[in-house]
Design a protein that fits this description.
Layout (H helix, E strand, L loop, with lengths): L3 H4 L5 H10 L8 H9 L9 E5 L4 H14 L4 E4 L11 E3 L2 E2 L2 H22 L7 H15 L4 E5 L16 E4 L7 H4 L3 H8 L9 E3 L4 H13 L4 E3 H5 L14 H15 L9 H7 L10 E5 L2 E5 L5 H18 L4 E4 L4 H14 L2 E4 L10 H7 L7 E4 L2 H4 L14 E5 L2 H11 L14
Parallel strand pairs: 1-5, 1-6, 2-5, 6-7, 7-8, 10-14, 11-12, 11-14, 12-13
Antiparallel strand pairs: 2-3, 3-4, 9-10
Helix pairs in contact: 2-5, 4-11, 4-12, 8-9, 13-14
Length: about 425
């Protein structure tokens, strides 16, 4: 696994500046973000937005909402994280990723603003990497004259850098146990953090949530007199009752229902009719989520499932795949963190005929040995310690399986990005050292 130090001499000045900001790590509070926004002229106030939080599904719901607004003729901004391959993927206007040259110019401009802030307020005034990127996104959306921006939280909600917005609608897609070291170790604690995006008097949309989490969120909404609209109340408890989407899996039907309900709540001025919403949901572009590619005669599926809740959706998709093909797939898995790896490897053991363990290019990635130790004793298939470069040495080359095989690559969005950078070189070089949640 290569380190940032190995790449430092090749970085552009803008990349080097952002990497320096990353050294401060995750800093969850809002004072610095408000300070940066003020120094930038509060660009977040110039574009209406929808704010989306959730343990899983928030990226998919954000992509769905963007497709809905764009199909209705609105100029859209989309801010998501992490990026898969290039940093500019995080900040898109009408689904066009921010070009490297434009991104670099913004970094230079905002860096000058930051240094003025630091000169006046000291080192603590310097924003984190994610705060800086959030300010950059708001600035770009304002200057690009977006009609609406879809803003995905980075981590949690209450003190996430994105939570300086006053959204038209807030959306909470799901609640599960993830990032417990930052958000709390119970569903109730995590729900309270996600509920922090609810604003007084502004509607909140609830996806399919555990009862304990939903009670917390409804209590927060009641305190803030925020109207609550629930997917399960609107569409019923069975996923088949939800809207259809081109994204694969029952969980995506729930995400489509969540996006539909949010769109319905936006009000008449946005001209989002039912037919337009339904058509847009069949055109959603969202890489790395059960994304299918053809490589050397193999069917390669790349999916960013990376935690216990995602493992449930993944198993459903794998069971459907086995029924469709009549045999178990080959699975490549690489995970960040042992707490996430356990549930995922349990699914792999039930559904794979062969497992290839890989280590994504991230400091938090589990080693081959850590992954192997977490495999259940009952797995009867073959286990290999591999690398993505060894399995896919070139864009049209695959050293795994044989033509006609199905290969599923799962465990992390960072791993998905690594694979897509190799198999789709037109996306550009992988900027893994600038990936972050």
């Amino acid at each position: 696994m290569s380190s940032l130090a190995n790449h430092s001499r090749y970085l552009r000045p803008a990349e080097a500046y952002l990497c320096d900001l990353k050294k401060s790590g995750v800093r969850l509070e809002l004072d610095r973000m408000f300070g940066l926004a003020e120094a930038l002229g509060h660009p977040e106030r110039h574009v209406p937005c929808v704010h989306v939080a959730g343990t899983n599904g928030k990226g998919s719901v954000s992509a769905m909402l963007e497709a809905i607004f764009r199909a209705a003729g609105w100029r859209t901004g989309l801010y998501t994280s992490p990026h898969l391959v290039r940093l500019g993927e995080r900040i898109q206007v009408n689904r066009g990723a921010l070009e490297t040259e434009v991104l670099d110019a913004y970094v230079g401009e905002l860096a000058a603003v930051v240094e003025t802030m630091v000169a006046a307020g000291g080192p603590d005034a310097r924003p984190s990497y994610f705060e800086f990127m959030t300010g950059l996104a708001f600035t770009h959306f304002a200057r690009a004259h977006c009609d609406i921006a879809i803003i995905e939280t980075g981590l949690g909600g209450r003190i996430d850098a994105t939570n300086i917005v006053m959204p038209e609608v807030s959306v909470i897609t799901s609640i599960g146990l993830d990032h417990c070291d930052f958000l709390g170790d119970t569903l109730e604690k995590i729900a309270a953090e996600k509920a922090g995006i609810i604003k007084p008097g502004h509607p909140v949309i609830l996806g399919r949530l555990p009862d304990a989490a939903e009670r917390i969120i409804r209590a927060v909404a009641a305190e803030k007199t925020a109207p609550v609209f629930s997917v399960t109340e609107e569409f019923g408890p069975v996923v088949d009752g939800g809207p259809s989407t081109n994204l694969v899996g029952g969980h995506q039907r729930w995400n489509a229902a969540t996006a539909t309900l949010a769109a319905r709540t936006m009000g008449a001025r946005w001209r989002l009719n039912e037919g337009g919403i339904a058509r847009a949901l069949m055109t959603v572009e969202w890489s790395g989520r059960w994304q299918e590619l053809k490589v050397a005669g193999r069917r390669v599926i790349v999916d960013g499932a990376h935690n216990a809740e995602g493992a449930e959706a993944l198993e459903s998709n794998l069971m459907r795949l086995r029924k469709e093909t009549g045999r178990a797939p080959l699975i490549v898995v690489g995970v960040l963190g042992a707490s996430r790896a356990g549930p995922l490897l349990a699914v792999m053991a039930r559904q794979a005929r062969e497992i290839h363990l890989v280590v994504p290019q991230q400091a938090r990635a589990c080693s081959h040995a850590e992954l192997a130790a977490l495999l259940p004793d009952g797995f009867r298939g073959k286990v290999h310690r591999s690398t993505i470069g060894g399995l896919f040495p070139a864009p049209a080359d695959c050293r795994l399986g044989a033509p006609g095989d199905v290969i599923v690559i799962v465990g992390s969005l960072y791993l998905a990005g690594e694979v897509l950078a190799r198999l789709e070189p037109a996306r550009g070089p992988l900027e893994h050292y600038l990936q972050d949640f």
